[in-house]
Design goal:
InterPro entries: AB_hydrolase_fold (IPR029058), CocE/Ser_esterase (IPR005674), Galactose-bd-like_sf (IPR008979), Xaa-Pro-like_dom (IPR000383), Xaa-Pro_dipept_C (IPR013736), Xaa-Pro_dipeptidyl-ppase/CocE (IPR050585). One of its GO terms (molecular function) is dipeptidyl-peptidase activity. Keywords: Hydrolase. With 673 residues, the protein is of the alpha+beta class. The chain has a ten-stranded mixed sheet, with helices on both faces. Strands 15, 16, 17, 18, 20, 23, 25 and 26 form an eight-stranded antiparallel sheet that branches. Among the domains are: 35-205, Rossmann fold, CATH 3.40.50.1820; 221-290, no CATH class; 428-449 and 475-661, Jelly Rolls (Sandwich). Strand 11 and strand 12 form a beta hairpin. The relative contact order is 0.10. The chain contains 19 helices and 26 strands.
Length: 673
Amino acid sequence: MSDSSQAAAQPDRAPVRPSPSPGDPAPEPAGNIPASLRAALKLPAADGPASRAIHEVLELPMPDGTVLRADVVRPADDGAHPVLLTRCPYFGAWRPMVSEVSGVDPATPGLMAGVLGMQANVSLDRAIAEGFAVVAQACRGTDISDGDFRFYFDEATDGTATRAALAALPWCDGRVLTFGNSYLTTTQFTAALAGTEHLAAMTAWVSPSTYDDDLAMRGGVLLEGPSYEWARQQVRTGLWRDGRPDAPQETLPEPVPAFTPYLERVGIAQAAQDLAMAHRAGGHVVDWVRHPLHDAYWERLVYPVDGLADLAVPTLHVSGWYDLFQGGTLRNFTAMAAGAAARGRPGDVRLVVGPWTHLTFDGHLAGRDFPGGGTDDVGLGELSLDFWKAALGDEQAAARLPEDPVRVYVMGADRWIDLPAWPAPDAVEQAWRLGAGGVLHAPDGQAERDDASAADATADAAGMPGAGGYEVPDTHATASSAAGWTAWVHDPAEPVPTAGGQMLMGPPENAGPHDQRKIEARDDVAVFTSAPLEEPVTLLGPVRLHAWVAADAADAHLHAALTEVSPDGTSTLLTDGVLRLSARAGAERRDPLTPGEPVEVDVDMWSTGVHLSAGHRLRVDLAGSNWPRYSVADPAGGAPVTLRVLHDAAHPSAVVVSSVSLDDHPAVVRYGA
């Protein structure tokens, strides 16, 4: 009998936990943990219900014999309970942090079950008091589990096997509810799509869906910095788990200011090889670089729309306007909601979207605060508990749930509203046309009035006092413009720097609603600004750029950003998107450009929800790069490339948004209030 099978036969034996080499630090420094993160953990009280529960480590053999281990906290009685399960590859990095905040040894049985608070906004104390058992299992090859970690590919088999094993335990009543965010939704969806036996519900925060178009790439362009950084973190944690020192900084540098010049020097293909050589946990980036098209590799990772629609499992989807996986979460929700509606159970699939990034859920983002925008403000924990209870057959909990299945935060209005569906059924699609002189024409037929203010808009862009009574940076140099087109030059040696957005790269404050004025001050960014709004406008729903674009090369990247310009000149990023122009006909193919010949394209900019007050302006920024968030196009061997966007009568390029009347959507109170 192998060592792993002996361990499986002795579930009460404490597992051997990895220890760092002498002098080698833990994978993540635990000191100086921000107070906001401590609060978000919602760890149990010293004398709370969880303190009187059973805490243990559970060992479960997978079908191939690999033993996976989980921290368990469950009610101290002889009853059978529903199980809240999360499966996670990050516990090795999180354990020191949770240990420090809790004031206990990292090897304490049940310790990682406490992540329920930051992964579902429900404290462990509350879950135990409500009669749930909580199981936090480390994915294979991570933390205290055996085996080797492989991105994605073992999660379906391990997930279904874990559910079956849990359901067979005497303290489980046969019903398993899964929870977690980001990769912890990958472990949920892959297993659910493989089979739903024993699965009572899912709570999926910030979830990918297509992987090549919302994790590794968007619009055919590699998310280079985020892909490297995430893999670098897995390498560090994997080495620590193996008792080996971390890779030296000169070989695999971090954080962002250090790895950006490294990627510029060696390129992502070599960096991917370096990651794979350092530790197998970083090997997936090699695959991502080798598969730039949507091919069989990516197709097996996609959650199929039909499969999602057929997934008859109550699911609570959660995302943020500035979340890395906003597009994936909305795709998952719309597919599952369609299936639930067809089955006559629309309330089984719900959606909450807040003013959040991938990591920050308190409503306080870099660049902007959103009053009442935190998870506690909306009552997401209480909503989650009632959702779980309803899925288990509690009729009173089901009756308390909102009648409408969608709840979103409208930025600017600073209110939560409910919707019967997503996108909002009453939303009206509007095209704000790009025009000469950097003007963005409103969709209400006021082109003449906008043209009259073109000089003001251009003056604003040039750093002169504008009609709105504010000034923008005096370093701005406008892209060249003619009556029917606007051009700018993309230089791969001097890419446009990343400034916020829907991403996960660097510290949490790197993402979100950053002021774009420094970006807009560059001469390689084309800026189109509306006249000051005479009436408020509420944008709620998908955003896309529909444009005719030409380049003097066989390929180029088109980056598009939508911003809100306040009377003081602040240009706040709302949402953005990118398209590799050769991928305009689909991610599975490449159609090179004919230099100088315009092509019609759509850039998916995902979605937003924002109320623009009278006197504010709407702005569109176009660029050829966004580095290091995305790979930089270099189709001409290092030479600059000129891009043109056409905006004459024959080529009415526009940003297409969805608008609603805010008066038709009253604010809702905190759930459970």
